[in-house]
User: Which sequence fits this backbone?
């Protein structure tokens, strides 16, 4: 099963809190873009200070780095705070639905199920759903944008070297899989 399958199944719960989902996504996008921008900002800083000894860059680079990390912190806070809030609300909705379903079950079914199993479903399984949702959103939004941003930056710096690097990935994966056995 892939991530989109689970996201589709949880979309009924997410739709109810679409505005929080948007804030979470915006925060993760800001975090990913600022994280991808770190090498873009640091390269001129290193070149301008150590190589060229440019006084303007030496004076301005710390402010740009502080601004970049400030924006990254805001994006990270938004993504994690609103993501946790969304997860908590979805856990509450899932537990309410489970409780409503349990009230409609025949008495015999409830008597044949152990109390520990019922409590486990309400606590552990619901919490795992929220944790998985948080990871799913983070991976599908933040990590994807970060990887794409860094790949585009590498292609911008030196497209030939980037393509050679990508050609080396399959043999490296093969060697790692071979030695992991």
Assistant:
């Amino acid at each position: 099963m892939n991530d989109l399958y689970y996201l589709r199944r949880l979309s009924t719960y997410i739709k109810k809190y679409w505005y929080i989902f948007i804030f979470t996504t915006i925060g993760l996008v800001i975090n990913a873009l600022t994280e991808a921008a770190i090498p873009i900002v640091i390269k001129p800083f290193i070149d301008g200070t150590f190589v060229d000894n440019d006084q303007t860059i030496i004076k301005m680079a710390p402010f740009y780095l502080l601004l970049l990390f400030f924006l990254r912190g805001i994006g990270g806070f938004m993504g994690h705070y609103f993501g946790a809030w969304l997860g908590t609300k979805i856990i509450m909705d899932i537990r309410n639905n489970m409780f409503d379903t349990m009230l409609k079950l025949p008495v015999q079914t409830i008597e044949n199920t152990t109390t520990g199993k019922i409590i486990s479903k309400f606590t552990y399984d619901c919490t795992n759903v929220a944790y998985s949702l948080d990871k799913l959103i983070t991976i599908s939004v933040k990590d994807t944008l970060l990887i794409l941003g860094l790949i585009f930056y590498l292609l911008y710096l030196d497209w030939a070297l980037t393509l050679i690097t990508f050609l080396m990935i399959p043999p490296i994966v093969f060697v790692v899989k071979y030695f992991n056995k």
